[in-house]
Amino acid sequence: MALKLRRSAVANKVPTIAQLELGELAVNTHDGRLFLKRDDGSESIVEIVNSGRVISAGTGLTGGGSLAADRTLAADIASQAEAEAGANSTRLMTPERTAQAIAALASSGASTLTAGETIRSRVDAYYQRTSTSWGTRHAFDFAQDGTIRISFDGASSSSEPAYFRVTRLRNAITTVMGSWTITGTAWAGKFIDVDVAQGDRVSVQSQASTRTSGSDKSTTTYYGYARIQNARFKTGGENLVPGVYAPVEND
After folding, report:
1. DSSP state, residue 92
2. 230: left (phi over 0), alpha (psi -120 to 50) or beta
3. 24-28 and 4-8: which strand pairing?
4. What does the DSSP 8-state code read for residue 200?
5. What is the spatial distance between Cα 204 and Cα 179, in angstroms, rounded to a whole number?
6. In whole angstroms, what is the distance from residue 109 CA to residue 101 CA?
7. pLDDT tens digits for 22-73?
8. Topology of domain 118-235, per CATH?
9. Would the CA dihedral through 74, 79, 84, 87 be positive or negative?
10. Which whole-number Å values give the CA distances from 170 to 79, 137, 176, in the listed order?
11. CB-side exposure of 71: number of CA atoms within 13 Å?
């Protein structure tokens, strides 16, 4: 098969499959690029690359190298310590690292929390949970140390019990800090003071109940849906610094 050459002096012009025959080369004399047609069962245009050319990783990237082999460029991500220190100008920040840096800056000048009656974060709207699995009504990620007061109003949809609890997530371990069983439709106010540290998540949760009574031929199912409102996080007057996920709704 004879070797043929096709030429173009137009910048950035690349030959098409229809323009090249197998064994024919195309030279772009303006760009200094060389192309051929490959047929491995599917025809395509391949550029012959000078292996002496190099891809260099710029600021915030790693990898690269000569084009003699496949190369990968990767983001050079800052560590949490670097993100919180804020002194490195060559590393990249992810959303997680940005949130960690903000939390660290906020907590550096934040007050130690004390439990009190000043509402600093809340979800007041009425909600009825019909599922018999636990569901979170309100949660907060803390960027401060101290004690927080959590309060809520709970009720059942009937004389059947409804369940409520406050949990604290610390170092990937969830601890139930307080739990309540409420029967009847009258609202019952509950509260608990919880010790918190930076990175803790405190949640107010509810769960419905169900009970079946009777024989195989005649059964009745009774439900106690968990009703909750006025889920609030309170301090002794200190401002509550937003954590990574939870917004603050001031009173």
Report:
1. B
2. left
3. parallel
4. -
5. 10
6. 13
7. 888 888 888 878 888 888 888 888 887 776 678 887 888 888 887 767 788 8
8. Jelly Rolls (2.60.120)
9. negative
10. 21, 19, 11
11. 16
Q: Count CA atoms closer than 13 A to 76's CA, side-chain side.
A: 13
Q: How many angstroms separate the CA atoms of 249 and 87, rounded?
A: 32
Reported pTM: 0.57
The strand pair at 219-224 and 188-196 is best described as unpaired
What pLDDT digit, counting tens, does each position of 154-192 carry? 999 999 999 999 999 999 999 999 999 999 999 999 999
Where exactly are the structural domains of the chain?
A: 1-50, 78-108, 118-235
HEC profile for 108-136?
HCCCCECCCCEEEEEECCCEEECCCCCEE
At 171, list the tokens. 């170092």
Q: Where are the beta strands (DSSP E) in the chain?
A: 4-8, 24-28, 33-39, 43-48, 54-56, 61-66, 73-75, 118-123, 127-129, 135-141, 146-156, 161-170, 173-183, 188-196, 201-207, 209-214, 219-224, 226-235
CA torsion angle 80 175 144 205 (round to 10): 110
* 99 phi/psi in degrees, rounded to 5: -65, -40
Tokens of 152: 């809520």
Beta-bridge partner residues of 128: 227
Quick one: 204 exposed, middle or buried, by C-beta within 10 A (0-12, 13-18, 19+)? buried
Total residues found in the chain within this entry = 251
**Scanning the structure block, which residue is given the tokens 């409420």?**
182
